[in-house]
Each structure stands twice: as C-alpha cells, then as structure tokens.
Amino acid sequence: MSVRAERPAARILLVDGEGRVLLFRFDPGDRPPFWCTPGGAVDPGESYAEAARRELREETGLELECGPEVAQRHVEFVTIEGVPVTADERYFLVRTDRSEIDTAGHTPLERRVMQSWRWFARDEIAAHPERIFPEDLLALLAATETADA
Questions:
Q1: What's CA 128's distance to the chain center, in Å?
Q2: By the 8 A CB rule, do 8 and 43 touch?
Q3: Number of DSSP helices (H) and strands (E) in the chain, helices first
Q4: Options 3.90.79.10, 3.40.50.10860, 3.30.450.20, 3.40.50.2300; which CATH number does 5-148 get?
Q5: Cα-atom radius of gyration of the chain, to the nearest Å?
Q6: Cα dist. 30→2, 68, 95, 111, 126 in Å?
Q7: Phi then psi dihedrals of residue 12, to 5 deg
Q8: Which of 6-20, 74-88, 106-120 has the highest mean predicted lDDT (pLDDT)?
Q9: Could you report the per-residue pLDDT of 31-61, keeping only the tens digit for each?
C-alpha cells in the first residue's frame, strides 16, 4: 500500500459576464485528456486565498481578488507528475468581464499538458464527451448562484 502525499490546493471557478466558466484541457499522455478549473497546489507558508490569487495570475494572467471560498473537497488522484495525493481543494469564485487570458505564466509542465482552454456554457459542460473535474462542477456553479441571490 502506497502512502498518498497531502496536497492542499486552491481552485478557481472563473466565471465571465455570460456565466461561462473557464476550463483548461489537460493531455498528460498517460491517461485520457480531461478538463479542469484553473488552480494548483498551495505553496509552503501560503494561504489558500493567496494561492488562488497566484494561480489565477500564473495560469490566466488576470490580477483579480479571489473570493469568497465557496466549496471544499477532499479527493484522491494521481498528479500529472505521477504522485498519488490526497487533496484538500478549496474553490474560490472569481468573476471577470474579460474573455481573453494570458498563459505566458505557465510552467514548462503546464505548457506541455495544458495546451488549450475555453469558456464553457453550463449546457456544454453536461454534454461534453471528455471528463471534466470537479465532477460536480455544475452543482458547484449552481450553489454559487444561490449564494449570490
């Protein structure tokens, strides 16, 4: 039995003015491609909110406040680097009027496995043939709308 590394992570539900959510397509090579929200591991000494803001800047080029934290999930998976982890993922809702993003801040690994991105409307998420993470993304987005009301 292998021990899973603990992985605190900040994830961003980036929603544009039309209510679409930004997802990146990961093509790791060792498993089928999948789509995922922006975000990543929390660096040592960093809060979840600080990590969310940093990840948003690095992955999208957007300098925006990341808040509020709208969800927390505990999931097990194998990272792109092949490390089995137990992740404590915190989700932050971020709204933007911009639809263009800048991926210049991507790491070499991100450039290799995250070569495309797009804004998804809610109905496109449900009908998309490739896996989308988190698997309950539509429920998370619906909960943010309820919280906004």
A1: 17
A2: no
A3: 4, 8
A4: 3.90.79.10
A5: 15
A6: 19, 34, 33, 16, 25
A7: -120, 130
A8: 6-20
A9: 899 999 999 999 999 999 999 999 999 999 9
Give CB contacts under 8 A, 24+ apart, made by 133-136. Answer: 133/34, 133/35, 133/36, 133/37, 134/11, 134/37, 134/73, 134/75, 134/89, 134/91
- The pLDDT of residue 109 is 83
Residue type, 93: L
* pLDDT score at 148: 56
Position 147 scores a pLDDT of 56
> Around Cβ 39, how many Cβ atoms within 10 Å?
26
4 CB-contact burial (10 Å; exposed 0-12 / middle 13-18 / buried 19+): middle
Q: Quote the pLDDT of residue 145.
A: 78
Any idea where the domains of the chain sit in the sequence?
Answer: 5-148
Residue 146, pLDDT score: 66
Contact 138, 121 (CB under 8 A): no
